[in-house]
Design a protein that fits this description.
This protein is mainly α. The protein folds into two domains: about 15-195, MFS general substrate transporter like domains (Growth Hormone, Chain: A, Up-down Bundle); about 220-400, Up-down Bundle (Growth Hormone, Chain: A). Helix content is about 80%, strand content about 0%. The protein has helices at about 5-10, 15-35, 40-45, 50-80, 80-100, 105-120, 125-135, 135-170, 170-180, 185-190, 210-220, 220-250, 255-285, 285-305, 310-325, 330-340, 345-375, 380-395.
C-alpha cells in the first residue's frame, strides 16, 4: 500500500478538511464530556449509587485508552473515514443503551464498554491523525492545534446544551437527542478519504513499511517512551483537575459555582491555548515546546498552592491551566509524524494516547485515595508538581527530527 497521491490530496481543499475535523471533534468530545451531568438524575431515578455510575464512566476512560491503538491500526489500514463512521454509529447505540438501561450492569456495558470503544473510534486521535496524513508538513501543527481547540470548544459549548436538554426534556429524552446528534459526525467524517491506495503491481518487494516493522521501530526507540510517559503526566493533570478541582474549591470555603466556573474557564482558555500551541509547533522545535509546557504547568500549580484561595485566584489559575491544558497534543503528534512517518501514525499515536488515558485513570483515582487518607488534596498537588518537573525533564532527549527508514535489502 501507499498513501494517497498529492493530486488526490489536492482534490480536497485543506480548509474543508480542517473545518470538518474541528466540527467533528467538537461534537464528539462535547457529547462525551456531558455524561457527568446525568449522574444526579439517573442515580435518583434508578436508586443507583454514585460510585456505581462513576465506575461505568471510569471504565469508559480506561477502555478508551486500551482500544485506541487498535482502532488506530484499523484507521491506518482502512482509512479514518470508515473508522470514525463506525464510531459514530457506536456512539448512538451506546447512548440509546444508556437511556434504556434499568440496572447498573446493563448501564455499565453501554456506558463503559460500548462507549469506551466508540470514543476511541470517533475521537480526537483518529480525526487528527487522519487529517495530519492528508496535509503537507507545513500545515500539520496548525491543523492539530485547530482540532484540539475544537475539542475544547465542545466542552465549552455542548455541555451547557446538554444541561438545558436535561432541564427541558428530562434525562432520557436528552440522551435520545444526544444519540441523534452523534450521527451528525458521519457526514463530517466523509471528506477524510485517507485510505491508503494499493501499491503498484510493479513495486519492488519489501519496499512497503509494515505495521509490525513500524511498531517495532517506534517501541525500540527511547523517544517513544519519553513521549508515552510525558503524556501519562498530561493525563494525570487533566483528570485530577477535571474530577477534583470543584471539590477542592468547595473545601476551601468557596461556593460550588466557583468550581463549576473553573472547569468552564479551563475549556474556554484552552481554545486559545491549543491554537497558540499549533502555531508554535510550526515555528519552534517541538521538543522545547513540550518542555516549556510541562514546566509552566508545575510553576502554575506551585503558585496556586501557596496563594490565598479566592474566587479571583481560582479563576486566574483556571485560565492559565486552560492555556496549557491540551496544548501538548499538537507538538506530540507532530513529533510522532516526524520520527516515525504518517503511514502508521494513528497506531503509534494511539499507543502514546494510551499513556495519557492511563495517567487520567491514575489522576482521578489517586486524587480520591489521597483525599480519603489525608483529608486534603495537598499531597496530590505536590505529586502533580513533581510529575510536571519529571515530564519537562524527560522530554529533553526526545529526537526532534525524522529518523531514516531502513533501506530494503
Amino acid at each position: 500500500m501507499s498513501l494517497p497521491t498529492a493530486a488526490a490530496r489536492a482534490a480536497l481543499p485543506a480548509g474543508l478538511l480542517i473545518a470538518c475535523v474541528v466540527a467533528g471533534v467538537l461534537l464528539a468530545n462535547g457529547i462525551r464530556s456531558s455524561f457527568g451531568l446525568f449522574l444526579g438524575p439517573m442515580t435518583e431515578a434508578h436508586a443507583w449509587t454514585a460510585s456505581g455510575f462513576a465506575f461505568a464512566i471510569a471504565l469508559q476512560v480506561l477502555l478508551n485508552g486500551v482500544s485506541q491503538p487498535i482502532v488506530g491500526q484499523l484507521a491506518d489500514r482502512f482509512g479514518g473515514r470508515s473508522v470514525i463512521i463506525g464510531g459514530a454509529l457506536l456512539y448512538a447505540v451506546g447512548i440509546l443503551g444508556m437511556a434504556a438501561s434499568d440496572g447498573l450492569p446493563l448501564f455499565t456495558f453501554f456506558a463503559g464498554v460500548v462507549m469506551g470503544v466508540a470514543v476511541s473510534a470517533a475521537g480526537m486521535p483518529v480525526f487528527i491523525a487522519s487529517l495530519t496524513r492528508m496535509l503537507p508538513e507545513t500545515m500539520r501543527g496548525r491543523a492539530a492545534g485547530l482540532g484540539t481547540a475544537g475539542s475544547s470548544a465542545g466542552q465549552f459549548l455542548v455541555v451547557p446544551l446538554a444541561g438545558l436538554g436535561i432541564a427541558g426534556l428530562g434525562w432520557q429524552w436528552a440522551l435520545v437527542a444526544m444519540a441523534l446528534a452523534a450521527l451528525l459526525v458521519i457526514p463530517l467524517a466523509w471528506p477524510l478519504s485517507d485510505r491508503p491506495a494499493p501499491a503498484p503491481a510493479n513495486a519492488p518487494a519489501g519496499t512497503e513499511d509494515t505495521a509490525g516493522a513500524a511498531l517495532s521501530r517506534a517501541l525500540g526507540e527511547p523517544s517513544f517512551w519519553y513521549l508515552f510517559f510525558g503524556f501519562f503526566v498530561c493525563g494525570l493533570h487533566v483528570s485530577f483537575l477535571t474530577v477534583h478541582l470543584p471539590g477542592f474549591v468547595q473545601s476551601c470555603g468557596l461556593p460550588l459555582y466557583v468550581g463549576a466556573g473553573a472547569i468552564a474557564v479551563i475549556g474556554l482558555f484552552n481554545i486559545g491555548g491549543s491554537l497558540l500551541s499549533g502555531e508554535l509547533t510550526q515555528r519552534w522545535r517541538r521538543r522545547e515546546l513540550l518542555v516549556g509546557i510541562y514546566a509552566a504547568r508545575g510553576v502554575v500549580m506551585a503558585g496556586f498552592m501557596v496563594a490565598e484561595k479566592t474566587t479571583t485566584t481560582v479563576l486566574v489559575f483556571s485560565a492559565l491551566m486552560g492555556i496549557l491544558w491540551l496544548s501538548t497534543i499538537p507538538p506530540t503528534i507532530s513529533l510522532c509524524a516526524r520520527n516515525w512517518g504518517t503511514r502508521w501514525l494513528a497506531t503509534i499515536f494511539g499507543l502514546i494516547y494510551l499513556g495519557h488515558q492511563l495517567g487520567g485513570f491514575a489522576g482521578a483515582f489517586l486524587g480520591g485515595v489521597v483525599f480519603d487518607a489525608t483529608g486534603s488534596y495537598d499531597l496530590m498537588w505536590s505529586i502533580g508538581i513533581a510529575a510536571a518537573a519529571f515530564a519537562a525533564l524527560i522530554h529533553l532527549p526526545v529526537r526532534d527530527g525524522p529518523r531514516p527508514l531502513p533501506v530494503p535489502a
